Amino acid sequence: MDQITHDVRSSQWLEIITQCQNRPEGTTAKQWMADNGISEKSYYYWLRKFRKQACSQMTETSTAISVGNEISFAEVSISPKQSANIAAFTLENSVEAIRPVAVIKNANISIALTNEISEGLLSRILLEAAHA
Fold it and tell me: Which of 78, 97, 101, 129 could form a disulfide with 92 if both were Cys (CB 3.0 to 4.6 A apart)?
């Protein structure tokens, strides 16, 4: 099968699979296929092909992302006033101790910010947090 024929069939089957997945509620896939004259074996063959293709594309993307990411450390300088706030946070182990005006949360980290933070420090924190 040449590439053009494969592309045409792929696009036809993608349309069929999409229509089946958007079938009326309460209608089974098997019933929809029977009503529309679709071979069940062919349907599941093409569905499996599309799923494998999607999976390999996701794997390639995640591999490309993880290969380019290296762990790095950045020195962040802070003022003595901010240092005192951090010490208070560490001693009391509570975000309330520094009275944050904003808290940035991610799945992996939580950053509490006060009004005393410099623009440069905030920029650096956000840059590094994007890679965390």
Answer: 97
